[in-house]
Amino acid sequence: MERAEVLKRVIGILTEAQEIRRAVEKEIEDEEAFEATSEIEPQVVTQMLNEMLPHISVPADAAPQDVAHLLAVALGPALHTMVSGFTLAFTSLAVVHDEGRTDVSSAEVLQTLALQVEAGRFDEGA
User: Is 94 exposed, middle or buried (0-12, 13-18, 19+ CB in 10 A)?
Assistant: First the structure.
């Protein structure tokens, strides 16, 4: 999966988690609502991981060192890109928060970030 696609999916997962939390908070204003969102969010994260992580085939006779090497080679770049995406989103949200801006919502920050990713602003080497 291309880097831009991973970044957009990371932004999507944050946006979706935020929307789920808002919907539940609107419906139920008690502690049970927050417990419900904590059950929903892992499902969304699991789906994202299944889509973004590569499928790995390990030979049945592979030595533990070979398995470790296969996992590192296959998962390393994907995990690095995902962490970079979450870091980028967090930093973008943190800057707006730390500046005390009330004229822009977190959803708008994420939307702007997604448009910047789509435009190629965060392509490697750019």
Answer: exposed
